[in-house]
Design brief:
Elements (H helix, E strand, L loop, with lengths): L4 H7 L5 H15 L15 E2 L1 H9 L27 H8 L4 E9 L2 E11 L2 E10 L10 E6 L6 E2 L2 E5 L1 E3 L2 E9 L8 E11 L2 E12 L4 E11 L2 E10 L4 E10 L6 E8 L2 E2 L3 E12 L2 E10 L10 E8 L9 E2 L3 E3 L3
Antiparallel strand pairs: 1-6, 2-3, 3-4, 4-9, 5-7, 5-10, 8-9, 10-11, 12-13, 13-14, 14-18, 15-16, 15-19, 17-18, 19-20, 19-21
Length: 334
């Protein structure tokens, strides 16, 4: 996913990046900015370049065996009831959430990873916080965490999450997408909390996840307009989520174009999307080729209903609220 052509202009400015980032993070933690639970809609939580994805996969971060901490017994409870995670809620109702018990303590605060899921191309996790948590101006307080080692080449690898009261402590939730085309059966993702409320410290985890059964359906639909072509390659149908994979071909200079999908089922527009996820970007001659993905973050209503897809492209340098509209098409599962 791209954040618009202006991001490229911003990145071209020479600044003391490390110092600025640290100052921003410190300011966020101190100010305790409110973070909505509905923080990711129509966007992806992680912006991953092809080079960064290759580095992460090669390092074994995702493909290492699942740790012993991965319990095989499904968790029965209401872990996801406090969060706007329709995937997690549905999986929990089907007893498909995996219980975890990974703990780390520092500065009088204990953080425990309590559950995780891995459905199709989407991952989620919950955690509890107990101890001497001091507010950081927010009510409730926030936690500042890094995923994938906080790799600077991965946008949104550093996030602020609001904690929800739970008993004498707090609970929190993280949702992200798997940043590669191939989906291994077992994976881990590194997670580190750098601040809980006003307390800076270090709480590190390698969260293990095990892929739930899913179905991959081939697609062969292409739409084109004004030198832009989008081929829809396949669908990943999980237990509670559905991913649509596509290949977008842009003319030279289209690296900052953003594919957006407007999707409707029989009940109307589907709002719960992670959209414009770039899994791979490469240049070939006078073209830019993007392997992308859009994830529907809830179960599809009905038994394999039909979907109507309206592809759009926000063009670099133009008004993102007036994207290029391509020909809509219908997906029939039956």
């Amino acid at each position: 996913m791209k954040e618009g052509w202006h991001l490229g202009k911003y990145n071209a400015i020479e600044v003391p990046e490390k110092e600025v980032r640290e100052a921003i993070r410190a300011g966020i933690r101190k100010a305790g900015l409110s973070v909505s639970k509905k923080k990711r809609r129509k966007t992806g939580p992680l912006l991953l370049s092809a080079a960064a994805a290759a580095l992460i996969l090669a390092s074994g971060i995702f493909l290492s065996p699942v740790a012993d901490a991965l319990a095989k017994v499904p968790f029965i409870g209401q872990l996801y009831g406090n969060f706007d995670d329709l995937v997690g809620k549905h999986l929990e109702s089907q007893q498909l959430i995996t219980r975890l018990n990974q703990s780390a303590a520092d500065k009088g605060i204990k953080v425990k990873i309590t559950s995780a899921y891995y459905d199709g191309a989407i991952l989620g996790a919950t955690f509890d916080v107990n101890g001497k948590v001091k507010g950081n101006g927010a009510d409730p307080p926030c936690a500042f965490y890094e995923i994938f080692g906080g790799d600077e080449r991965i946008s949104d690898s550093k996030e602020l999450v609001r904690l929800e009261p739970k008993g004498k402590g707090f609970t929190g939730h993280i949702q992200l997408y798997y940043p590669a085309s191939d989906l291994p059966e077992n994976a881990t993702f590194p997670l580190a909390f750098n601040a809980i409320g006003e307390t800076e410290g270090e709480w590190k985890f390698n969260v293990p996840v095990e892929q739930l059964p899913y179905e991959k359906l081939k697609m062969d639909k292409a739409v084109s307009k004004q030198g832009i072509r989008i081929h829809f390659d396949s669908m990943i149908v999980g237990k509670a989520s559905t991913a649509i994979d596509y290949t977008a071909i842009f003319p030279k200079g289209g690296e900052e174009n953003q594919v957006r999908l407007e999707i409707y089922d029989d009940d109307g527009e589907i709002k719960s999307l992670m959209d414009g996820i770039d899994l791979e970007v490469k240049k070939e001659g006078q073209q830019v080729i993007v392997k992308g993905r859009t994830i529907i973050l809830r179960p599809l209503n009905g038994d394999r209903p039909s979907l109507t897809v309206y592809p759009k492209v926000a063009l670099a340098g133009e008004d993102p609220n007036q994207p290029l509209e391509l020909e809509p098409f219908r997906i029939d599962f039956k």
